[in-house]
Amino acid sequence: MERRELIQWLxxxxxxQALDSLAPADLLALGREVHKGSRQQAALRVxxxxxxxxxxAAAERIxxxxxxxxxxxxxxxxxxxxxxxxxxxxxxxxxxxxxxxxLDARCRARRGMDFIACAExxxxxxxxxxxxxxxxxxxxxxxxxxxxxxxxMLKYLTIYGFCTSxxxxxxxxxxxxxxxxxxxxxxxxxxxxxxxx
Length: 197
Fold this sequence. Notes:
Blueprint: H1 3-14, H2 24-40, H3 49-62, H4 76-86, H5 90-111, H6 120-141, H7 143-147, H8 150-163, H9 166-173
Helix pairs in contact: 1-2, 1-8, 2-4, 3-4, 3-6, 4-8, 5-6, 5-8
C-alpha cells in the first residue's frame, strides 16, 4: 500500500471528531508532531500505568516486531496517551478507557489472569475476537457505528501512531526522511531598479 493510500485509509476509518476534517497531509503532519511531543512528555497524562502496559501489549500484538519495528519500537503507547489527552473529545477518551478493562475480563475468563500476564497466543485470540466483532458490526450497521467501538479506536490509534513514527516510516514504509520542497525551476527575481541584471 502506498503512503498516500494508507493515510487516506486512516482518514476514512478514523471516526474521530477531531480528525475527520483533516486532509491526508495534515493527518501525517499531526502524527509526526504528536510523536515529537510524546517523546518530550515525562509522565503519562491519561493512561494509568496498568492501562499503558495493556496498550503496549495490545499494540505490539496488532503490529508485532518482525524484521521491521513493531508498535513498541514506534512508541505507540505514549502516542495513544497524548492523542487521548490533546485530540480526542472527552466522550471518545472515556469510551476507549472504559473498553480497556474488557481485555483483562476476557483474559481472566480464558486463563484467570490479566491481559498483560497472558501468553501471546491468548492475547492474540482475544484481540482477534474483538476485531471479528468490529468487522461484524461494520457489516451489519456500517462503518460509522463500527468506528465508535473502543477496540476500533485502539486499533486505529495503533496503526496511525506506527505509520507516523520515524521507525515505522523509516524501516517499515521506507518513506523517511520526509520529502522536502524543492523549486528547481523557480523564476529568477527581477534585479532592483538601477542595477544591471
